[in-house]
Protein 1
Amino acid sequence: MAESDLMQALRDIAVERGIDEVELLTRLEEHLAPVYERVLRLAYDARVMIDRETGAIYVFELVPTNEDTAETDEELEFEEVDVTPQEVSRIAAHQAKSIINSMVREARREKVFKEYQGRVGEMITGLVQQTNRKFTIMKLDNDVEAELPRREQPDNEHYHFNERIKCIIAEVRDTDKSHESGIVLSRKHPQLIKRLFEIEVPEVYDGIVEFKSIAREAGVRSKVAVSSREPGLDPVGACVGPGGSRVRNVVSDLRGERIDIIPWNDDPATYVANALSPAKVERVIIDPETHTANVIVADSQLSLAIGKEGQNARLAAQLTGWRIDVKNMAMATDQGLISLLPQIEEAEEAGERICAAVTADGVRCRNHARPGSIYCGVHEKAAAKGTRG
């Protein structure tokens, strides 16, 4: 290939592939230098120069003109000796092909990184391409590939070729390794539940119904706490939908994962009681010092409140942020909690509120709660200190 033809070809490719022409030529010069060192068996380093106008290629050997300067701290000086071979363009054309391919891959990687790095947490639909023991490769829009690692797949899910799967963009990595995808997806991320409800429930999409908290054991069961910004609107009913149609569609997308939708409440005792649904709670006594909610249930409700292998209580604790200790009536009586209930209820019926705190001995505080608070003055300070800590 003639030098002028090579230059024109490089310019055409740069335009077609969206590569900067100056960067392409500079990198070609850098990559050609060690190639010519080997081909010409030079004793010293080489420098390659490509004329930006004519495309002429020149190879120079950098021959030192002074002694080793390691001990004198003087700069090493070189004389550039022209050693340009006759077949210089042929070698350059062969090398240019691999450099262009490399630059195209890098440009595409950079474009994908810039496009997706601000989309972490979004839900996206992809087509399954292939699956192995470590991950599933998904194809997104514009033939962009993403990786769904095994650790981000619920244990009960298995995927088939060309199956459409909704996932959360969990991570976007800036990587130049061709065997590693820069986009990491997740089917276990808690935000997947919220994004699916946004599709099914207009009130969630518009922000009228707010997801306050999500606790999830992917593939098995989840709890979500919702509230309404519009007075009179039932947030739970909006998410469930007519005849349960809305939540049923979400459960279908999650392949049978059970979802408990509970109303959020700013009163910790009420919130914890709601979170333990479907169990019926008799009483919740809050201990701010240990951040524990002592829950009293009927004997018939104890196993339901705790759940299989502790799942219901565990998810309720994750949802509310409180350590939950479930007791039946017999256990609560032994710890002296039951004897305090009549006093608490009597005060509340009279329009007064008893402090919600429980001492380290398991005894309910008998002080009145401060206005606008569930604690007395002493325990309110302790609760505030615990929150700051």
Protein 2
Amino acid sequence: MINKRLLIKNLLAHNDENSFYDKKLKLNIGEKEGKAKFLKHICALANSNPKNNSYIVIGVEDEDNQIIGVDFFDDSKIQNLVNAYLSNPPIVAYENIPFPHLSDNKVVGLVSIRSQEGKLCSLRKNIWKYYGGSVFFRDGSISMPKVFDIEIKDVNSEIVSSIESHAQNNIELTLDGVFDFMNSRQDYNPNYKVFKEYFVVCWAAKEKRVNGEVYYSRVDIALINEQVKLFYSQFDEITISITDEEFKIVEYVQLGLQDSYDYYPLEEVIIKFKNNVSYDIESRLLFDPPQFDKKTLYHLYNNNNALIEKLKKGTALTPKEEKDLINLPATYLLCYFNDFNEAKEKLEEAKPPLKSYPNDKVYILYKESMRILRKIRYNS
């Protein structure tokens, strides 16, 4: 089994990007340009490596390989995006890899790409400035379009196999990972469980009881064998259930209006550990959007728009408006779920003023709302 943290170190040792791996400071697939560039790189790496894995490392300075990290990216449905835009799409996985020197909310993103061997990957439809039918290959460290017939060559299998073989996990790395997790998460009751006498899952969370139900917030869950952070959140409420073969998470979102909130199940994730030293992660969207009175929503929607305009103009907010601003991202989200289609665009447009607002909590809540929106959109 590959230790993903060690794999990233071995990839970065090949200081220059090349035809089997790329590195990025950050990834932005929430905007059309960022999404198009991501798909271009996926297509190019898949075509340039027909018989081995390709990788994109995210959260690394380009010039000196300094690992600065990115926010935890909770998106198990990135494959749906790839399938929607690419013909002969590769198998793509996004994993969050913690590093000891990074803060708890920062990780290094690792995108793994496995092509459909022998099949040329291309854009299925237009996106941004790239046309449907375009084919991309890696030319050194650059993803380039090709408009002519080209033979797919395998030139990297040996070197990629060598990199992966030098990143294999061992007992020492596993034990070090468990001790590191247990010591660093003393603030939130760290636990661990061994599955199938091999896999070690560690988790820490703050327990919360609501109407007799036990929920967990500030959750940190890691598969130590691969050094993969499976789940992380500063706010979410989840439930955890464990058997000898499964680790199940049900994530909830707290939604409501005017200080009256309820918990709604968002997604179920089940990690199934098997006897052949492998595991599967299955996810299922559970969300059924709550419906609210349209007149109330219109009032809140217009109030949100007025607040954003005030922020853009630099106008000071009243104490009541500051409280409304805290609820603004979730309110826009509820409006969108209740058929205010333009609320999604308004939420996206609100990013710059909310990001620059002095109260950091406002932008954290904005990112949380965007994460929920992205998850639901990719599952649709």
Protein 3
Amino acid sequence: MRLTGRTSITWRLTALFVIAASSVLLALGFVIASSVEQHFEEQDMELLTGKMTLAQHTLLQLRTQDDLDHIAQVLDNALVGHHGLAVRVFASNGEVLFATANAHFAFDLIASSAQRHAHRPMTWTLGQQSYRGIAAELPTGIGAGSKVIVAVATNIAHHRAFMRAFQNTLWIFVSIAATVTGVLGWAAARSGLAPLRAMREQAQGVTAQQLSHRLAVESVPVELAELAQSFNDMLARLEEAFLRLSDFSSDIAHELRTPVSNLMTQTQVALSRPRGADEYRGILESNAEEFEHMARMISDMLLLAKAENGLVVPNCETVHLATELRALFDYYEAVAEEKGLALTLDGDAEVDADRLMLRRALGNLLSNAVRHSAPQATVQVRITGFPDLVTIEVENTGDPIAQEHLERIFDRFFRVDPSRQRSSEGSGLGLAITKSIVIAHGGTISAASREASTTFTVTLPRAGHAQALATSPHEAAP
């Protein structure tokens, strides 16, 4: 599906390339223009300062008023060959003593600049011509107090023309460079993003039947390696969840098929001919047992589904493990005496847990131990406290469990002996529920089987340490 109304990364990178290149070129052009302008000003000031020094030297050679009257001739001789230079000399009363043909300076402007900012450059425009000049009040050699105002300027129209041409050329060059940069930037961005397109094409090939597909992390650039690995991890989680859901659905269908089939068969048999009230009552009682079995199974599966999705939130309180286990011993005492079993308990500790959930988990372990223990044996429960955790071991004597079965003993509906699907073997959800409850409390559970005994070990955070260990339950092992 093609998304519209969004700017692609390629076009964003292209725009950034164009903006960056244009900004750099404009900044460079501004620096060059400023340098050229400063260079022109330095050249003009060198010329103007030299002519001002020449005028000052000429004025100091004057000795009488008559010499001052003939200053025009003297300055004309001194300025021969400088056609672009404009010079004007004013007496203190504003009388023009000397002026070149192109010198049209206002006395007020010149006098103000000479008195306040002597020898400081200034620019002005007269008609179509632009000038840069300096003005100063210079003494003469006639006597003390004899001064004149001299203004020297040069035409800078050619400088302005050069700068306008330079700016036009700069704008044209920047426009062309921006276009070329945009094209090259687009090509570079498209080439650089090719691995992303390849990842997209591979991702489009992932379906519910091909969740095992993974991206080749080693074939993508370093910048995309983490993204590819994250995508692979996501696929792994999805595959695991899908397989778990698929197995769960298959297990549900398999486990519910037998009771439903029994109910249908009994009902069809009951309807095949008229029967007495006692016979119907017996059939209904048998059906009620099947319904109770199905209700327990559905309740257990609902608990497992909630636990696997993190929806089981324990209502924690301080629980004395020895007290809870003694209460469970009383509950299973009759079954244990029937098999001649002895139930023993060693140790005590406190944990922060949901009392009902923890009792159910421990009850499942104890029921499993009593069911599979050899007659006239002992079921031992040991509680060991550590600084930040507690271990509960439930050991029974009996036939060992094969190693390949230990790896799956906590799976849903798993039974060591597949032939025992009903009766005393339960629904096969007890250990799976126990594991979910333990994990919900931030703990771990494991099973070990030796030559003539099997031990289940539960590790839980000690009271007061549940918050710290709940985030990393696998680190709670002693």
Protein 4
Amino acid sequence: MASEGKNRIAYLVTSFVLLLFLGLIYAWSVFIGPLEGEFGWARSQTSVTFTISMIGFCVGNLASGAITPRTSPRVSILIAAACAAAGFAASSFTTSLLWIYVSYGVLCGFAVGLGANCALSTALKWFPDRQGLASGALLMGFGLGSLVFSTPVTMLLSSLGWRTTFRVLAVVFGALLVLAALVLKNPSAEWSAAMVAKARQGGKVAQHDFTTPEMLKSPAFWVFMLWIVFVTSVGLALISNAVPAAEAVLMAQPGADAAAATLMATTAMGTISGFNGLGRLSAGFFWDKFGFRATLIFVSGGMVLSMAACLLADMSLSFPLIVVGFVLLGLAYGGSMSSCSAMIGSFFGTKHYSLNYGIASCNLIVASLIGPTILSALLDSSGGYFSSFAVFLGFAAVSFVLLFFVRRPKDPVRPEGGEE
């Protein structure tokens, strides 16, 4: 049984690579230009695709939580392979908004959520003693996906066109997910029980494995969810508008050149993706080394400093300062993603991680509705980003206060003779 754990790094690496590719879902913006150029769609119409894909992602997470424990990682990942291949292939035949909403938003979003949750939950079963660091490393891959693959996909779009690019992605994602399905597997019950017992002795994971209903009845879960919604609302709002926000600072300067401003703003946006990945790994390390409280301070504190830097950049028209804000935004947003995964394992146990994490990830649905909606309303009313930065600085400050109310949950009281 001791030799079984020697292969766990292979499962971690496989999951990392899979999540790296699945992270391409965040790079939807590279497809916006070609689609808007061909069909004349407005940005408000094409941006709905990303929102739908995030909802599909959350639904896929929930589906993995229901399917994987009842079958196997192989079944879930093969379903994800079929949905991803079908989604990208169908996207290549797009002729209407409804078509791309369903093909990319629903099918691809669902496939990514299903595959990502399965890969993450399966790999973490091999690391009950390193929940934070393993979560951070895996989610770093997911966060870096858009940064790593945006340029290659953009090159494909330029040389092959968007229809052929979608077909290439259908083949790549389908094949990759099938290969991952052949590799990933759960540890044996005996090995897992021994490692979880050891991790519990070291305080790395919860002493009790909360079922999903038990988790949902815990005040600790809802306080944490409130905290993360405030953080991710800021993150999703600003990440989705990073390029125009940076362009607004650059174009307000004397003698500004539109082409150069767009290039510099796009480069600045890339720093968010890079530091998003670094933030996920850093927060995972913090969680294991210094505990959850220090990690939440790292995340909320970073978000406060980020919004303050962006606010000052808007006031002073300082491009370097807004880049600093973007760097801190990436670190904080990425850290919140790792914190969510680590919280489920260390607060509520590993046995029901897949479904519990799927439910926790639904904070993205709430945040994607709150953050971007507020930003759009403020942008329409004011014509600039100053008021948005000010409001989201307030959001970040609220999250900093809330983190001190986050507590580990108490074990639920079970009826005498009840099952563990």
